[in-house]
Design goal:
Helix content: 10-25%
Number of strands: 8
Length: about 120
């Protein structure tokens, strides 16, 4: 995912199936997005977490996707610069005619940072 010409994260391990994603990503905490969002305490913006999920779904389905409705978006912990910058992305997708029902989690070890339960459609 590239924002302002610089890659925000890289995929270290890719485990993708037809309807599931279980990837390990590495976040670049030197990215400018961290300098502008709470400058005294850098944090990954929630909208960027949502966009990471959208990008992962779009890549898997080879389609540009957009969120249609969100039943649940929970930000449980802040993603802040730390020594460990690797995070797990787990996504399950159910194709329901023109919609895709998506459940997603961003976690690290036993810590869950973000949960999403939403419907997506092609853009």
């Amino acid at each position: 995912m590239i924002i302002n010409g610089k890659r925000l994260y890289s995929i270290l391990k890719k485990n993708e199936e037809i309807n599931n994603i279980d990837n390990l990503i590495e976040i670049d905490f030197s990215h400018p997005v961290f300098k502008g969002h709470f400058p005294d305490k850098p944090v990954l913006p929630g909208v960027i977490m949502c966009d990471i999920i959208r990008n992962q779904i779009s890549d898997l389905l080879s389609k540009k996707m957009q969120i249609e409705t969100a039943k649940q978006i929970k930000f449980l912990k802040m993603i802040t610069p730390s020594e460990n910058n690797n995070y797990n992305i787990k996504i399950s997708i159910i194709n329901n005619q023109q919609q895709y029902i998506v459940k997603a989690i961003i976690s690290q070890n036993d810590n869950t940072y973000f949960k999403l339960n939403a419907k997506y459609k092609t853009k």
